[in-house]
Amino acid sequence: MACRRDVLIFISLFTLIYGEVKVIEINVSKYEGLKSSQLNNREKQKQFYDFQFCMCPRAVQLHSQPWATSRCQCKPTIKGKRVIDSIPYAIFPMSCVSEVNPHNCLRASFKKTNNERVFVKVSIGSLTSVTLPLWQELPLDRMKNSRSLTTGTGTPFKINYDVITYSPFSSKESQVMNVWKPKSMKTSLFNLLFKRNIEEPDFKITSMEKTQRHRVVKAINSAPWTKDDITSVARYTTIQQIREALFRQSLKDRIMPTSFDVRLFKEELTTYHNIFRSRHGAPPLEYDYTLERAAQNWANSLGSRRSCLVHEVPRRYGENLFYFGAKKFPSAHVMAQLITQSFYMEGVGYDYN
């Protein structure tokens, strides 16, 4: 009986201890490198940014004790992109959340048992440090994070990254998807993309339907529809006219693509779609996070192809593939207005219900 009791105690303790172990992954989605004016050596521009990640006990202050890496879990150095290819920034594909590609992804994973912290060090090659202090902490409190790392140049090194935590005994995909699952969908390439890389939204979810509905109503009501709005939307009759109008407005507004207000663009897009729908007696569209992520994944798939402006075959879904490339953008309001107009130009015979 004593032996059996010891075995039971051992199994219970093992389960208790190992049950607390989590795998935590850091996936860098974007970083803003140094400016070319801050690199007086052209040879350095041909080198790669090197990243090293360490997970340390809470008591280890790696930013002030860089020699204490022996007390941490430290991953081998990972190469980012070349310095010249990181001006003004470098972007990594969303597929890195679910797939490992050492040539396209910047990612590190650790086994997390207690309240450890993660630090990162950035350098150019093995001799030139970028971050100062050498090691700097990456907060892990949100799924999507942004951090400005201090450097010796006075310009911050900005890094955007995703944090995914899951149990070693469960699949990462189920943790990433969490509650964002469709009720019913047919199998297609669009659906396969939909099932991957579903991220947590950037607003608090209590009751999903109630919260999203409230957010949408606020967005739609934020820009009252006027007669001038409806008239201005309807005055273009060809895609070429829309292209020219966007270009003319971009010369006036001169908004940098990196400063484009994506959140406002989404809200305005919903507003203008509902202008068209109201004319046909159709109910207004409502924001749906899962559908947005599905559409984003499909757009990423198209964008990764050499000829990205192509439709799904077989065509099970209506797609409005609008591409606008310029050094400067028009406002989010104008962009949403004209892109919506192009959608209904292409959608001859569109069923509003």
Automatic annotation (TrEMBL):
Q: Where is the signal peptide?
A: 1-19
Q: Which Gene3D superfamilies match?
A: CAP
* Keyword Glycoprotein found: no
Alphabetical UniProt keywords: Signal
Q: Which domain of life is it from?
A: Eukaryota
Residue stretches making up the SCP domain: 264-353
Q: Which InterPro entries match?
A: CAP_dom, CAP_sf
Please give the Pfam families that the UniProt record associates with this protein: CAP
Q: What is this protein called?
A: SCP domain-containing protein
Q: Which organism is it from?
A: Trichostrongylus colubriformis (Black scour worm)
